[in-house]
Structures are given as C-alpha cells and as structure tokens.
Amino acid sequence: MITGNRIIQARQTDLVKWLRMNNEPLKRAGRWWYLENHDSLRIQGNKWYHNSTGNGGNSIDFLVYYYHMTPNHAINLLTGFTSEYGLIEEKCGVKEKNKVITAFDFSSVSKDGEYRRVLAYLVKSRGISGNVVMYEINNNRLYQEKGTANAVFAILDEAGTIVGAEINGTLSYKNARYKGIKAGSLSGYGFNTGQRHKPCYILFFESSVDLLSFITLSNKRTKLLNECLLVSMAGLKQTVVDTTLKAFGYLTAIPVFCVDNDAAGDAFISRCLNIYPYALVRKPDSLYKDWNDQLCNVVLNR
C-alpha cells in the first residue's frame, strides 16, 4: 500500500546513493553529481535538473523521467519494497548492505516475443540497415523488452556468456530517451559484435546505436570490417577499453576510438592515447556530431 509517508520517503531518497547502489555510472564535479552518459543531467541529494531539457524535480520524478517508470513503481523501488534493481532492504531500521545484488541475471530481462518497436526505432527512425539489426537479433544479442519496448543489447564476455545489457529506449518522453546499463552488469564490458577471437582491431563507440550506424555506413561503402571487434562503451569509459583489450585483444589488438565530434570525445581520446599511443582515431565527418547523425544525413537526408 502506498501511503503518504511512503511518498514523502521516496521523494526524499538520496538519488546519488540510490544510483550508485544500482550500478549507474556517476561522476562528480564540485557539489554536483552527473550521470556518466549525460553530462547535462546534474544531481544533488534528492534533487536533479536536466540542463538540456529544463526538466527537474525530486527522486520520484527522476525515476519516472529517466527510467520511464510509473510513479507507483518508482515509489516502491525508492522505499526499498523490491530488490529488482539490487536495492538495500531494511529490517528493524538496520540496513543490510549484503542484500545488494551484484551478479547479472539475464533472465531478469523480460523479453518480448516481437521486435516491432525496436525495428521501427533503429531502422525507420535511426536509418540503420534492417539486415544489420536482424543479424544481431538472430544471433541473440538484441532483444525488445516487454512492457517498455526498450532495445536490449546483450553484453557478452570473451567466453560468450551474457554478463550485462545496454538499454536504449525506443519511445521518447519529453524529447528524451532512456539510455543506460542494466543493474548488475559486469563492469568493464560493453555490447560487442564482430570478430571476437583474436581481432586485429577493436573499435570503441559511445553507444550501440552509433556502433550499428558505423556498420551500416561501412556496408554502404563496401568497406569490410574483417578482423574487427566493435564495442559500445555506453558512454566514455576507460574501464571498457582496458578490460576489452585484455579480454579480447590478448594485448595485441590495435584500439580504434570512434567517438563523437565534441569536447568530451576529444578529451577521452587524449587520455587514451597517453595509455595506448599506438591507437588509431576514426571519427565521424566534421559536419556531424556522431555516427548516427552522419548516417541519418546520408540515408534519411535530415
């Protein structure tokens, strides 16, 4: 039962603690915290504000806005009445930290029996080749989530085991789409496709959508991606670069940074080149922000 006291408790939940507990990557700048994949969304205590859209509010508002939850679902999660996302439960007022879920369980993803929304979003809206999308679906790396219709990109480790999932919303809410990593996903790994055994090149992208856009563009240019493993970092994550090179590259693969045309991408490349000076850089044409922006202009003439 959702009482007035529970609503108040949910509104006052510390978002930073809740997000960190649920494996949402955050970074701090001064007194504000920021989502790693959304530099314009800032958080402090139970308050948040999205600079690029002007949206903001309390903790309940955040879960409704960012995760597309219903208010009741958000209240249940914020007050600890479910452990779906690895929440800390309370007994007799004492927090039991060992209740936090750390292992990823792919069976927790409610997979839909169809792919209509995923195909409509990726193919019709984003211009990605239907053959490219169906290849990932047929190889059990791309699903549609039941209820939300989110695109679920399965993250596989070097043994082929699913160790996480990158989520991309197919429906917009106030001109924003949910993007994130499923709680419990193994840190350091990202959605990947291509040559997984001893690749010569490992290409790193900021999102799965950019990754699939790059494949579509390469196919149009009849440029082969043989001996290449393509990896989504779901942001700009040094840990994904380091882990992937060790797990898949056997320390011999050449990293290729295929990130966005912006200051954050440039700074990331600069940091990575200090560690991997032999790496290559392959960015979208200067007219476009990212690989999907370039693809949309080529295919959809936007």
Account of the 3D structure:
The protein has 302 residues and is of the alpha+beta class. It has two domains: 4-99, DNA Primase, Chain A (Alpha-Beta Complex), CATH 3.90.580.10; 106-299, no CATH class. It is built from ten helices and 16 strands. It has helices at 4-11, 15-21, 59-67, 71-78, 116-125, 130-138, 208-220, 238-247, 263-275, 291-299, and strands at 26-29, 32-35, 38-44, 47-50, 55-57, 90-91, 94-95, 142-144, 151-156, 162-168, 179-181, 192-194, 201-205, 228-232, 254-257, 280-281. The strands form four sheets. It has a five-stranded antiparallel β-sheet with strand order 1-2-3-4-5, with helices on one face. A five-stranded mixed β-sheet has the order 12-14-13-15-16. Helix 1 (4-11) packs across helix 4 and helix 7 (208-220) packs across helix 10 (291-299). It is globular. The N and C termini lie far apart (49 Å). Mean pLDDT is 84; it is low at 81-102.
